[in-house]
Amino acid sequence: MTNESEQLNERPVCDDTDGFVVDLWVRRPVCGPRTTVIDRLSTLRGADVLDDFDVTTWPEEIPLTGDNGQAELLETIEAYEAWAADRGLSLRPPFETRTASLLVGDSEDVLKTPMLLAAAHEDGDLVGIYPCTDGTETWTVPEFLDALEADAERPPGLDDGSPLSEGTTS
Fold it and tell me: What is the DSSP letter of 114?
């Protein structure tokens, strides 16, 4: 698999668009559960629950050493992890650092990316990332979408330390 990320639509990720926007990061191939999430986001956009969404593909693993061509993606992931840590949350797992063996007997550290990650933005500010955990509970992308669908609006308190509105966690 290639180490490139690819924007599947024309709007750049995390721009200054006003309103409630979701950036969805997915591994290739974009099929099965990934397309289900994209369909749900389309329905939520059509119902005016969210203003827009982006879909960007990313590699399964990103080398952490050498010139991997993924510096911008790694900076985005670091910003997501810092945002979560500031709120007592963690994105690990599903992000996972491990050592991968190379064909010539060497090894390199790589960051394994999740199959799906949703970053919610309100007026350009990051307000939620899924999946995440507080060490006890984990909130997934489908649970985030369930909360949006159940309330027919953005769940309140995405950025108040609770990843989902009350009564929507598992």
Answer: P
Closest CA to 139 of 160, 126, 158, 113: 158
For residue 155, give the nearest of 22, 32, 7, 65 by alpha carbon.
22
| Crossing angle (nearest 10°) for helices 141-151 and 33-46 | 20
Would you say 37 and 145 are in contact if contact means Cβ atoms under 8 Å apart?
Answer: yes
| Structural Rg of the chain based on CA atoms | 16
Distance in angstroms (rounded) separating the CA atoms of residues 19 and 159: 15
Distances (CA, A) of 76 to 10, 11, 58, 153: 19, 16, 12, 27
Q: How far does Cα 124 stand from its chain's mean position?
A: 15
Predicted structure pTM score = 0.78
Report which of 51, 48, 56, 62 is spatially closest to residue 30, judged by C-alpha positions: 56
150-162 pLDDT per residue, tens? 875 445 446 554 4
CA dist 50 and 53 (Å) reads: 8
Cβ count within 10 A of residue 134: 16
